[in-house]
Automatic annotation (TrEMBL):
This is Transcription factor TFIIB cyclin-like domain-containing protein. Keywords: Metal-binding, Nucleus, Transcription, Transcription regulation, Zinc, Zinc-finger. The keyword Cell inner membrane does not apply. It comes from Selaginella moellendorffii (Spikemoss). It is found in: Nucleus. InterPro entries: Cyclin-like_sf (IPR036915), TFIIB (IPR000812), TFIIB_cyclin (IPR013150).
Amino acid sequence: TALRIVASMKRDWIQTGRKPSGVCGAALFVSAQIHGFECSKSDVVSVVHVCGDTLTKRLVEFGNTESGSLTVCI
């Protein structure tokens, strides 16, 4: 799921000019939420070694895209 989210971010040019770790961190966080894993932003920040603000910015950017506004039906 995270790989598909990264591919979607690439299509929306979110990764351009940005460190890959921030994009990957946002994709991992969204993927974890989709699959029901309990992890916080600080957990992801400690794994991908980016600032919490960077992760939040990537999440906001992804949320502003068409893909980011989709819902998950289980």
